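Annotated sample (chain length 211).
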Amino acid sequence: MNKKIFYVMLALVMCACGTQTTKEDNNNVEGTSQADSATCTKPDSIAIDTTSAVVSQKKPDSKKAIEQNNVIAVKFMGYFKDYARLKSSNNYIKASKVFPEIASREDFSVKTDGEEVYLIIAKFDSAKVSINELTFDMLLNGQDESDGKVLFEGEANTPYLIKCNVSDTHSDINIHVEYGNGEIINYSPRLSLQDGSVITSQTGIQEIIFK
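Output written by the structure step:
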């Protein structure tokens, strides 16, 4: 056989084998990519399921939010001159849905000359609740905050609306609660001069948050 023809035929055979090998290699690579892709989708699915589970967990509503281990829950309702204006406010509408009993009342349980209105509730079944006058002289002389004239006596687990605080710098009422085994807590609701939020830094006091 002519050498030239032989080498041409050999070259054609080698080219055909190389093409076949390349195709097989490509097929192997594609198969690996598909397998890897299928493997990668599993963690994504798990992540979505986990996220869904977290999202589905409901936050506690306002009523459950005050069932923590505190003695007094308080909510600043706003500034109001009279009960009628309070009843038309958004905070009152929300409060009456959480505490329906306040909707049947026609006036504040306690009212001084101030215009800050608070919703308060003592949360222990055995608690004894009283609200007394707290004067500037009492504060100046270091007198016990519960020594003032008693303005109101109430029950535990019952919400009350009070209007108070002529001054921005101090409260003019004191909420006195006896609970448990003779334990006592005194709380005078007032607002922070820095940001206007109700002060609840005292141990045993919790703010009511309407969702």
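Annotation: The CA atoms of residues 41 and 95 lie 48 Å apart.
Annotation: Residues 1-57 form one domain.
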